[in-house]
């Protein structure tokens, strides 16, 4: 019989059933006896019905999860946690940071952190006072930059970080550079989910105001400190080339590029995609030319 996953087992024992989606409960029981789950924790959006709770029950759930992660990792010598997935949970900044800080005792074994859409919509990082107005994020939608760095930066052997672009973008790019200095040659992959609303604020006259973008000098510095780092882009629902190019610069070490334009081909033709393709082939010929399928387009 396969060795049970102590974290999933404790989730089933300790979390009241009100926290669990009934349709996923049987699936979770099967995972208790799954060999694969020994080293991986997934707090699924489908399993934890976070959006259905009132403020008190939501707070209690986060406390439960935080304690379970801490206790399992601290008490079980057999647990060597290597990966955690918080995708799609729509956490508040405080909730997300608390759950990641609970991984401190696994900082020498965690290699993969997956956080696409882990936070609520329109969540971004705190920025310097000078840039506060431009950031476009409400106070309760800001992740405290130092807390976020402390949560991610303590994972000494992290190789893969999967996050929204807005979770790492600062006006100076200092968070990206600090992570690169901390992780160095251990850091292999940065997977960025790029959403238009997280970097641009539409105005009444049809234009837009930029929020926060990572500057070219920060990408250059990150490549210096983390020379094996490769960036994988997923740009979702963005049809304009002028917006595509805001997410990357000449020194961004792009390895893979996936683009979804959300265009209805019955009414529009994506002629401007040529500009995106030309830019990618010109700037990143050395990293993208090895495999043609490193560039994907979904209209």
Describe the 3D structure.
The structure is a single chain. The chain is of the alpha/beta class and 299 residues long. It contains 12 helices and 12 strands. An 8-stranded parallel β-sheet has the order 1-2-3-6-7-10-11-12. A two-stranded parallel sheet has the order 4-5. Helix 7 links the parallel strand 6 (160-164) and strand 7 (189-195). Helix 1 packs antiparallel against helix 2, helix 1 (6-14) runs antiparallel to helix 3 and helix 6 (145-153) packs parallel to helix 7. The protein starts with 5 loop residues before the first helix and ends with a strand. Mean pLDDT is 74; it is low at 1-5, 21-38, 128-138 and 289-293.
Describe the protein's topology.
Layout: H1 6-14, H2 22-32, E1 40-42, H3 55-75, E2 83-85, H4 93-101, E3 112-115, E4 124-125, H5 132-135, E5 142-143, H6 145-153, E6 160-164, H7 174-183, E7 189-195, H8 196-199, E8 200-202, E9 208-210, H9 216-225, E10 230-236, H10 241-244, E11 254-260, H11 273-283, H12 285-288, E12 295-298
Helix pairs in contact: 1-2, 1-3, 4-6, 6-7, 7-9
């Amino acid at each position: 019989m396969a060795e049970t996953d102590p974290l999933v087992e404790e989730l089933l024992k300790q979390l009241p059933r009100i926290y669990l989606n009934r349709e996923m409960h049987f699936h979770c029981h099967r995972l208790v006896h799954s060999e694969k789950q020994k080293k991986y924790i997934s707090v699924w959006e489908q399993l934890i019905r976070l959006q259905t709770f009132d403020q008190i029950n939501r707070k209690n759930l986060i406390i439960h999860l935080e304690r379970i992660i801490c206790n399992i990792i601290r008490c079980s010598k057999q647990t060597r946690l290597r990966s955690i997935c918080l995708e799609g949970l729509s956490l508040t900044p405080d909730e997300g940071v608390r759950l990641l800080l609970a991984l401190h005792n696994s900082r020498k074994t965690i290699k993969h952190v997956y956080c696409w859409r882990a936070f609520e919509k329109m969540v971004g990082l705190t920025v310097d006072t000078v840039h506060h107005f431009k950031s476009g994020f409400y106070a309760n939608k800001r992740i405290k930059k130092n807390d976020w760095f402390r949560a991610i930066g303590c994972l000494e052997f992290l190789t893969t970080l999967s996050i929204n672009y807005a979770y790492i973008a600062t006006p100076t790019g200092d968070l990206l550079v600090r992570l690169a200095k901390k992780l160095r040659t251990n850091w292999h992959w940065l997977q960025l989910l790029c959403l238009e609303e997280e970097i641009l604020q539409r105005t009444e006259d049809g234009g837009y105001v930029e929020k926060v973008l990572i500057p070219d000098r920060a990408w250059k510095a990150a490549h210096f400190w983390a020379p094996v780092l490769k960036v994988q882009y997923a740009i979702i629902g963005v049809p304009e080339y002028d917006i595509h190019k805001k997410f990357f610069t000449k020194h961004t070490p792009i390895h893979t590029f996936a683009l979804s334009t959300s265009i209805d081909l019955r009414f529009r033709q994506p002629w401007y995609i040529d500009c995106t393709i030309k830019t990618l082939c010109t700037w990143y010929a050395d990293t993208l030319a090895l495999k043609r399928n490193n560039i994907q387009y979904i209209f």
